Amino acid sequence: MTTTAPAPATRPADAEQQPSRGTRFTSWAANYVDERTSMSGLVKELGRKIFPDHWSFMLGEVALYSFVVILLSGSFLTFFFQASMAEVEYDGSYVPLKGLEMSAAMQSALNISFDIRGGLLIRQIHHWAALLFVAAIGLHMLRVFFTGAFRKPREVNWVVGFLLFVLAMAEGFTGYSLPDDLLSGNGLRIIDGMVKGVPFFGTWISYLLFGGEFPGTQIVGRLYTLHILLLPAILVALLGVHMLLLIVNKHTQFAGPGRTNDNVVGSPIMPVFAAKAGGFFFIVFGVIALVAATVTINPIWNYGPYDPSPVSAGTQPDWYIGFADGALRLVPPGWEFMIGPYTVSMNILVPILVLLVFLALVAVYPFFEAWITNDKREHHIADRPRNAPARTAIGAAGVTFYAGLWSAASSDLIATHFKLSIESVTHVIQALTILGPIVAFFVTKRICLALQKKDREIALHGFESGRIVRLPGGEYIEVHEQLSEYERWRLVSYEEYRPVMVRPDARGRISQGAKMRSAISGWFFEDRIAPVTNKELEEGSHGHH
Amino acid sequence: MADHGSADSGTAVEIIATDPGPRSAAVVPTDRPQNPGFPPERKRVADLDPAKEKQQERRVVAWFVLGIVGAVGAVAAYVAFPLDTHGAVDPSTTRITTLLIGLGIALGLFGIGFGAVHWAKSLMHGHDLVEMRHPTRGTPETREKAVAVFTAGNEESGFSRRKAIVGTLIGALAAFPLPGIVLFRGLAPKEDANDVLRHTMWKKDTRLTRDPSGTPIKASEVTLGSAFHVIPEGLNDSEHKLEEKAKAAVLLMRLKPEDLHPSKGRENWAYDGIVAYSKICTHVGCPVALYEQQTHHLLCPCHQSQFDITREAEVIFGPAKRPLPQLPIYVDDEGYLRARSDFHEPVGPSFWEREH
């Protein structure tokens, strides 16, 4: 092969500057690739792209890396798993189940666990990675929410991320159902019951989904197609969009000296960020492998094959389904009625609607806040949660609501562990789920405002140094020390909002929308602590002592 | 709060329409402290002391060596503990291979991960770099060109002029997925969903048998306070065993006859205190498997609906609404329990057309 060697490598030089073999090869390879792909442009654009650093920015990375682990371990599992509900007599090497009738899916899942060396390890890596994946997405979303990183221009990427969250849960549930063991079968039974509760179409959707009556012989194969083909394809595509928008919008950063809304301060991709992030991938993978090696998860051999008759008490769904299961449990008795000859299952519809509305509120929150503030600027400085008290309080209320539903999924375990009656546990959680968010809202808002006041106090008057001085008159004082201007900047640099007043528009009218916006913005921004001004700083430093 | 915030602060703030946009809640700062700029750089030990730098380098190397050790160790563990695939597996072998291969892999990964991160943190160029942001929207020229592209496309195709073409195109695009939707009817068999949900395997004179063995049950075997998990006779030989079982599973209990309070028309559905109720929860279909002997309550372990057997399985707690359907039973000449008929209503979770 003839190549024109790239210029830097062929510059005539004395013997000492003669490039080494490795350098010559790298140059040749880089040239080869560039002449065919124009890769140098991409490297030039992205190679030194700056990423800001903060521990909370790792959460999204954990999600991404655990997804890679899921893809790797999942591909291994597909080589052995049989997505078939054909009935077989178990003939593997796990003695207690020998001779039992089960589906081919269950048998192959058992074979992966007992007849393939390291198979159980990969199964557990896959399951633990999936749990971590959804958890990391959830925490990543909370980080983005509480720091306001969803604001313009990132609203679209918030929605993309939200879809990824939903897809991750769908992936989790479809995967959970595949081994066709007793637990997964009961999970599907609940889905079947929920689907049947849908007015008009429910009966038929269930019938089509299961290929006839529950459980049928189709569902595992169908879920498998969703689990390994359709959902991952959509997930990967959206993940690409998510990353692309991250590059276009650039990462947010927290306020700090030298950092502005117009710059990004941090490490370049090449080499520092690449080394840290690449290394972090291996650490995440390592943690998953460590947990999978030492902690059993989903021991299907204990549950046995699916049978519609038995059920084990106290079983729990995977954590991310808990809030849905809990919502079903919290419905009080009697929520079902007839319209003429038709049955309306409010005991199923209400939880489904509550979950959908909750998810919808999460999805649209950025647009809601943008509408209230009517702020058309781009925001690249992440808020400290205390500096957006109303938003933080809304987030805390949402988290409390979710936690209420989630804890309800374990109501039976709470009752048995603490020797309480299931009825009282259920009633308490019902109350907490409804009242908890309201309390959380007000408490969080007060805490945020108090923290802001404290910041203000420290910025203006410094912090208590712990040094007590006795004045000539006998008075004792504690000496306050001033912050450096770098430390202070972190406390004083945040954005201020205040309620918008209702004013007539250009045509002299006041629309309903404007009135509503004004009312909500009052609720949002009425209680607020104004950022420190220069004048106050001067007065503060002179006025003291 | 507001009085502490805005009034006390005495800031002369005004909404400036040009910046955050008109009618925004954002306050444009006028008298705020200036960004002090970057603080002086702080060097790391490895930047100042070549001996420390060498030490850090050795640490990175040590991590990577551990990575190699871990990966090789995982392979060694794989080889050292073969599974006997032809006979019984010793669960401890599975446990030990899972543990050792996993630990080896974890160590291999940690070696690479911690080594790379340590390299980046202690040896690579340490201080922050700055990159400028640009507005996300395109420059005015770019946007103008983009508009021109659309305008040209519109003019050259006549998209907005040729109303008939566009209208019919939208119609055709809306119609084209319809066959796809219709094709999905094939997901389920051709029988009407509503017919199959209404019947179970229970018929007149079907014997009650134990789950899962299928041996028939004599009334004399059902002692006071006991509960039996029941399936219809012949279920184990049925072609659609699981589907039938998912509808026909029954719980059999014996109470004192005076504890039962049968409603009109159901007086002969029990035999000497023995009653049979569907085991499939009327909420979302879990098996209502927990019988509390003292209170005669049935508890669904999935969502904690509770049914009172003394009151014809009426719901006393939880999200379920309807009582569990009762299976009418009698005792034949040989003393075996038999069904008088199928259930008189569909079993399991509610559905829209249930009482249609």
Radius of gyration of chain B: 38 Å
Question: Largest sheet of chain B, if any?
Answer: 5 strands, antiparallel
Tally of individual domains of chain B: 3
Question: What's the CATH superfamily of the largest domain in chain B, by name?
Answer: Rieske [2Fe-2S] iron-sulphur domain
Strand order of the largest sheet of chain B: 3-4-5-6-11
Tell how many strands the DSSP assignment of chain B holds.
13
Instruction: Summarize model confidence as the mean pLDDT of chain A.
Output: 92
**Low-pLDDT residue spans of chain A:** 1-13
Q: What's the end-to-end separation of chain A, in Å?
A: 81 Å
Describe this structure in a few short sentences.
The complex is a heterodimer of chains A (545) and B (356). Chain A is mainly α.
Topology:
The complex is a heterodimer of chains A (545) and B (356).
Chain A: H1 7-10, H2 21-37, H3 39-46, E1 50-51, H4 58-78, E2 87-89, E3 101-103, H5 104-114, H6 119-146, H7 155-177, H8 182-196, H9 202-209, H10 219-249, E4 253-254, E5 263-268, H11 269-294, H12 300-303, H13 322-329, E6 337-339, E7 342-344, H14 346-373, E8 381-382, H15 389-408, H16 411-417, H17 422-461, E9 463-470, E10 476-481, H18 485-492, E11 496-497, H19 512-525, H20 534-543
Parallel strand pairs in A: 4-8
Antiparallel strand pairs in A: 1-5, 2-3, 6-7, 9-10
Helix pairs in contact in A: 4-6, 4-11, 5-6, 6-7, 6-11, 7-10, 7-14, 8-9, 13-14, 13-15, 15-17, 16-17, 17-18
Chain B: H1 2-9, E1 26-27, H2 45-48, H3 50-80, H4 91-122, E2 129-132, H5 140-157, H6 163-175, H7 177-183, H8 193-197, E3 208-210, E4 227-232, H9 241-248, E5 250-254, E6 274-278, E7 290-292, E8 297-299, E9 306-308, E10 314-317, E11 326-327, E12 329-331, E13 337-339
Antiparallel strand pairs in B: 3-4, 4-5, 5-6, 6-11, 7-8, 8-9, 9-10, 12-13
Can you tell me about this structure?
The complex is a heterodimer of chains A (545) and B (356). By secondary structure, chain A is mainly alpha-helical. Helix content of chain A is 61%, strand content 7%. Chain A has a two-stranded antiparallel ribbon. A two-stranded antiparallel sheet of chain A has the order 2-3. A two-stranded parallel sheet of chain A has the order 4-8. In chain A, a hairpin with a 2-residue loop joins strand 6 and strand 7 (342-344). Mean pLDDT of chain A is 92; it is low at 1-13. Chain B has three domains: 1-34, no CATH class; 47-122; 197-339, Rieske [2Fe-2S] iron-sulphur domain (Rieske Iron-sulfur Protein). Chain B has nine helices and 13 strands. Chain B has helices at 2-9, 45-48, 50-80, 91-122, 140-157, 163-175, 177-183, 193-197, 241-248, and strands at 26-27, 129-132, 208-210, 227-232, 250-254, 274-278, 290-292, 297-299, 306-308, 314-317, 326-327, 329-331, 337-339. In chain B, strands 3-4-5-6-11 form a five-stranded antiparallel beta sheet. Chain B has a four-stranded antiparallel beta sheet with strand order 7-8-9-10, with no helix packed on it. In chain B, strand 8 (297-299) and strand 9 form a beta hairpin. In chain B, helix 3 (50-80) packs antiparallel against helix 4. The two termini of chain B are 60 Å apart. Chains A and B meet through helix 6, helix 8, helix 9, strand 5 and helix 11 of A and helix 1, strand 1, helix 4, strand 2 and helix 8 of B.
